[in-house]
Write a structure and sequence with these properties.
Oligomer: homodimer
Number of helices of chain A: 12
Strand order of the largest sheet of chain A: 14-13-10-6-5-18-19-20
Largest interface: A-B, 38 and 38 residues
Largest sheet of chain A: 8 strands, antiparallel
Structural class of chain A: alpha+beta
Distance between the termini of chain A: 44 Å
């Protein structure tokens, strides 16, 4: 018999996250490592009278085709693959890598070609023209990065995923209402005093739809509004496997005018120089998942730690009103559980990670 | 580094069996157990500037969708899957089951529904409107059925697959020429004296295209011609996991008028009563693979043992001129290496498995 938590997870993905309907064709992407969840998801889709289109590969990024195909072939998706992206009714991606460093052997040219090939899929999902979800599955590679045994990591994943998402949604909606109604947000913490404007912007509540685990309220801040200083002294900022320790940004009129770090400063500055939009904020997110308490070096979890906020430099989501354009989107988490405070239009709404609303 | 025999196998499948061309979309079906060959095949397809469409599943027959989907859904393929079958330029199926008994838990109703759903694929491949190959990969389940260790079984597979197929093709063509030119074939062996007519029929040579291992010359005998007795005393006849020991058929005017067996007689007779065509011959095949010497309880190999013939009761291939229609096609192998002889129009062409041509 299968671990009943796997069946609960599968029902959550199929019924809530994408809401599979009879007759739908649902692309299911995974690695073979996620077998129990893949089988449970397929069962659940079958019970809905819908079709799973299972696309398993050993590597989620990279692999023999990415290494060997001529660049012009790599850049253009196979027509039949493109059609799946264009016509599938929903997308479930189960994240279960064998090695979190996979794909790191690809040249920049090949990475760019792959990005270009998969653009039709991103267009479909980012525009929300089909329901989709990316779901974390507990594998050894993830446990290792998190500094846990697999058993601990499994417990962690299930604790952060198997929540009453209606109740979590209500709780997050209340938080979003406070920020929706406010204009100026002030973030205070260790080495940090930053204000950003959310005037005219509305938040999105991640209540178990596009991400599993979900659990954040997120905004696109007004692009020229950030003023002050933020210091990410609690956790390293991680981007494409590179770590930056003690990153510190000074903002003027929305733009980072000074960036420094205790380690990885050169990589940090180079990344901020990627393009014009890379020095502006693309996101302010508020972590709200009560099952996530520990930093894991995996931004999909870390940005949801209850009592943290995260700022992304770079591209913003248009569906939350964002206008910043960049080829990067780097989420960096700021812990407010010690010496932290959040103000909305001057009113204290969170102190040391505890809500006052 | 990968076993170099795997790379040789992959080149054989991609270059010879289906002849991949630049820009092609090639469906690759496999289980994760075949990983080394799957990766080598994808590499080889990529090097041709073509696209692999990898469709891996844990089970080749059955699985959670087959068990759980409503019958009407199971019966109708997903439109996107159907398009892959209709539009892919070539098909490579790598046979690597976890368990050779998989799918045996499905009801007859579900098996029939699956057959119906996959009919568009069979129409495409059986009409030869796209190149395809089914390739055996050495897995534990196969080794176990063959009574070998995995290491022995790997050696066996590579010995039967990594042949000079041009040379094998020439050798088989010479054999086919003798039978093409002849009318009456007489098969003599232990408990056996059977004549069949191949008048007007031409043989097909399996020289490393649709099957890997290949190695047979096969015909559709004239449907009302078989006269005499055949006794399959050397090897059991195996069909869908059921074994019949010592099967014996008496033919009159092409039809089996008496069928008996030392074990499994009831199953044998029931199967022959499936439909009208089930009591007539759908195939006469001549095993020609010099790498296959041992009976393996796997008809994909056994029918190619050098020095054997096989008779199939049931449906015949139209591309070899066959007209017999049945929902069964049961290949049964007769060993001629002891007390055996083959005659074409009265001329001895093979004795005790050795060719005299």
């Amino acid at each position: 018999m299968r671990d009943p938590r796997i069946d609960e997870y599968a029902r959550l993905l199929v019924d809530r996250s994408v809401g599979v309907q009879r007759g739908w064709q649902v692309q299911v992407r995974a690695t073979p490592l996620a077998r129990p969840l893949v089988e449970a998801v397929i069962e659940q889709i079958a019970r809905c009278g819908a079709y799973p289109l299972l696309q398993m590969s050993f590597e989620l990024i990279g692999g023999p085709f990415a290494r060997e195909a001529p660049l012009d072939v790599l850049r253009t998706p196979a027509p039949l693959q493109r059609r799946i992206w264009e016509e599938a009714d929903a997308f479930i991606a189960i994240w279960a890598p064998e090695n979190s460093r996979e794909g790191s052997d690809l040249s920049e040219e090949r990475k760019a070609a792959l990005q270009q090939a998969t653009a039709p899929m991103r267009e479909r999902t980012m525009s929300m023209s089909a329901p989709w979800v990316i779901a974390e599955y507990p594998v050894l590679a993830g446990a290792q990065d998190a500094g846990m045994t697999l058993t601990e990591y499994e417990q962690f994943i299930f604790d952060s995923v198997l929540l009453d998402w209606d109740a979590q949604g209500e709780r997050m909606r209340k938080i979003a209402d406070v920020f929706d109604d406010g204009d100026e947000i002030r973030i205070v913490g260790t080495g940090t005093d930053l204000t950003v404007s959310l005037a005219g912007r509305r938040g999105a509540v991640d209540d178990g739809h596009v991400n599993m685990p979900g659990g954040e309220v997120f905004y696109s801040p007004v692009e020229d509004s950030a003023e002050g200083v933020v210091e990410f002294s609690e956790f390293p900022a991680v981007y494409y496997g590179r770590e930056v320790v003690g990153a510190r940004f000074e903002f003027e009129a929305g733009r980072i005018v000074d960036a420094s770090a205790q380690a990885g400063q050169e990589f940090l500055r180079k990344t901020l120089d990627t393009d014009e939009g890379a020095r502006r904020l693309g996101e302010l997110g508020i972590g709200c998942n009560p099952g996530i308490q520990r930093y894991m070096k995996n931004v999909a979890f870390d940005e949801k730690i209850d009592g943290t906020v995260h700022l992304a430099v770079g591209n913003s989501y248009t569906f939350t009103g964002g206008k910043n354009i960049s080829s990067i989107h780097w989420d960096i988490v700021k812990d407010l559980r010690t010496n932290g405070a959040l103000y909305v239009d001057g009113r204290l709404v969170q102190q040391n990670g505890d809500w006052r609303i």
